[in-house]
């Protein structure tokens, strides 16, 4: 732990003082390092919470005097703000510094504004009354010709911004969707996504621009637009059926490894992008045969390429299985997905086994007979030591019960019932056994004799 602290303290001065003139950084750097470094070292050396509270209170009193002094420069204010962030990070109130964070974002140079914006984003929430004081600064920075200032303003807008002040910046952010720099367009899309979450009615008129972002030449901008589309399609999938072809084409490019390698994770092409696209396709293809037919091929390819060699590929495969069972069914795809689920259930890893059991619930909802091929594997899961696995297994067994396997399954349920000590499990299980006895009356007498 001490090595990590030392490395952090060594790096911090360079991060926050990187744009200082060549002639005079030595003294401020030493001051910054000694004050923040001394605070961090002092806290890590303490042995009790009481000692920590005492030390932090002394530090906050010192900072309060410094930020309130008329002789405090913006450079000194920046250093104080970093220490205030650290104190708040530990859970102590530094609200006296909030207004000074806003002033630093308004008045400082690029590096000072950066620290000021960072402090504001960490200190305040979107309904905080002081945030209104930053609106004019954000508007000014959005109109700046400096890319760094524009980026800082877009970042703060996408994190915290008063709902009632959205109209003041909305036209400026719309213009940034046409900016020549990809990072600006990407941040503009994320800002509009934030607006859609908190005030959807105010961005309804720019859906056409969202469509342009989906077709943007930069992959990052396109990926950012998927957040908005996933949200809108959840609310009204029928209005976006015409975009199914576009989503399928994008997924084909991703699965085929056509994206830059920067988007790969452990050699898996853009896994989070794949997951979002699969969720979108699942929503678009639900109960719609014509739309589902457009995505059968790419889903087949996704199942084939998602080799089980890393956790992220398990996530893709699980989402792909979910999508296959959400859209209009195709028998060949359903069978392939069911075989993939077997690899989950047979995994020795608890998390993957649980995912497999959850995936089987999708299978049962679509075609219970497909789950019967895993019947013995599911029954074996009842002997698993993890109680959550056992609960999920019991639920699955109840759902796949038929006249042929009812005796075996209920016997397993009764065995588990005798072992369980949780009242909720006992009540739930007894109810299921009673329902099965009523559903299969010839079996009912067998249950009584068994008991």
From TrEMBL:
Pfam families: Adaptin_N. Residues 52-442 form the Clathrin/coatomer adaptor adaptin-like N-terminal domain. Its main location: membrane. It is found in: Endomembrane system. It is a peripheral membrane protein. GO terms for biological process: intracellular protein transport; vesicle-mediated transport. GO terms for cellular component: AP-4 adaptor complex; endomembrane system. Component of the adaptor protein complex 4 (AP-4). Adaptor protein complexes are vesicle coat components involved both in vesicle formation and cargo selection. They control the vesicular transport of proteins in different trafficking pathways. AP-4 forms a non clathrin-associated coat on vesicles departing the trans-Golgi network (TGN) and may be involved in the targeting of proteins from the trans-Golgi network (TGN) to the endosomal-lysosomal system. This is AP-4 complex subunit epsilon. It comes from Marmota monax.
């Amino acid at each position: 732990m001490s090595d990590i602290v030392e490395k952090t303290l060594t790096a911090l001065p360079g991060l926050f003082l990187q744009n200082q003139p060549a002639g005079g950084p030595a003294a401020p750097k030493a001051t910054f390092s000694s004050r923040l470094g001394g605070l961090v070292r002092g806290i890590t050396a303490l042995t009790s919470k009481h000692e920590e509270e005492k030390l932090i209170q002394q530090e906050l009193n010192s900072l309060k005097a410094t930020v309130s002094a008329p002789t405090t420069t913006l450079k000194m204010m920046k250093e104080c703000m970093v220490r205030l962030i650290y104190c708040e990070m530990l859970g102590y109130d530094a609200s006296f510094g909030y207004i000074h964070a806003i002033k630093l974002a308004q008045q400082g140079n690029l590096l000072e504004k950066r620290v000021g914006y960072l402090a504001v984003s960490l200190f305040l929430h979107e309904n905080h009354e002081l945030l209104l004081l930053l609106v004019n600064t954000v508007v000014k920075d959005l109109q700046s010709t400096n890319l760094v200032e524009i980026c800082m303003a877009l970042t703060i807008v996408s994190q915290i911004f008063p709902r009632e002040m959205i109209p003041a910046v909305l036209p400026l952010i719309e213009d940034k969707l046409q900016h020549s720099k990809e990072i600006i367009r990407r941040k503009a899309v994320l800002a509009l996504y934030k607006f859609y979450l908190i005030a959807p009615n105010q961005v309804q008129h720019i859906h056409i621009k969202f469509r342009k972002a989906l077709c943007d030449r930069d992959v990052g901008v396109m990926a950012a637009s998927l957040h908005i589309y996933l949200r809108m399609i959840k609310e009204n999938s029928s209005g976006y059926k015409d975009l199914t072809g576009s989503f399928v084409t994008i997924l084909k490019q991703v699965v085929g490894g056509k994206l830059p390698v920067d988007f790969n994770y452990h050699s898996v092409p853009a896994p989070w992008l794949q997951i979002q696209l699969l969720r979108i396709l699942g929503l678009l293809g639900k109960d719609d045969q014509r739309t589902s037919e457009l995505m059968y091929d790419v889903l087949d390819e996704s199942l084939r390429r998602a080799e089980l060699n890393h956790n992220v590929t398990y996530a893709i495969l699980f989402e792909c299985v979910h999508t296959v069972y959400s859209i209009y069914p195709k028998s060949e795809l359903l069978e392939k997905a069911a075989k993939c689920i077997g690899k989950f259930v047979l995994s020795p890893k608890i998390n993957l086994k649980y995912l497999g059991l959850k995936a089987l619930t999708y299978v049962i909802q679509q075609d219970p007979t497909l789950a019967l091929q895993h019947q013995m594997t599911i029954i074996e899961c009842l002997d698993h030591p993890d109680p959550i696995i056992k609960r999920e297994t019991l639920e699955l067994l109840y759902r796949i019960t038929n006249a042929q396997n009812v005796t075996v399954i209920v016997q397993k349920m009764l065995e588990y019932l005798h072992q369980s000590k949780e009242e909720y499990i006992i009540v739930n299980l007894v109810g299921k056994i009673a329902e099965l006895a009523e559903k299969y009356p010839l079996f009912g007498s067998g249950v009584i004799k068994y008991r």
